[in-house]
# Entry
Amino acid sequence: MAAPLPHPPGAELVRVFADGSQVLLAQYVDVGTGWVVGQFGAPQPALASLSRCVGPVAKWHGGYLEADVVDNGHTVVLALANPPLADTGFQLSSTGRWFRRVAREEVTELFELDLTARWNGLSVRVVDQWQDAQRYVVARISHLGDDIERAERLQLEQVEAGVYEAIVYAAELTDIQTNQVVPHTWAPGPSAAQAPAYPQDASWATT
# Structure
């Protein structure tokens, strides 16, 4: 399972040896490219699935897309999970994802979504959601370890130290709260004077 927090563009995975020497294993370019290996012949890491529950979300041409902010806030990288239906300027990256780079001014909203809830009394963050084969809406939830005893009793999987995850039916979630977070380093777009209008559609939380 993926970690609940996104990787920032430019993040590096480095192996440090006992003698202090280092080798760059991979670098995270952006949401449109993902990880690129640093050694010739090394296997290419699989692309993580896109999720609007974590990481930047941009409104571009009336639609909401997964995104990353690069070039010191001047450029936004937009990403699509599937090929675009029309010729909208998206390109296929070497890692297999469709992306487009646009100027920050072309994006009318830019924020991160923080979606929290409770599952069987445990405070969790929703990090992804989709429909399963039976068309039920399921959610991947993450718990950051302030109630380890309850998380382990509910049989969440420990994916790393202090981080627990599980896939549950979205209808089982209670006390759902949605917050938009706008880092101060992101320059405002043309619609900064308008209130954010991310659709508050709670239908994903029902079957």
Summary: Residues 148-153 form the longest helix (6 residues). Confidence is low (pLDDT under 50) at residues 191-207.
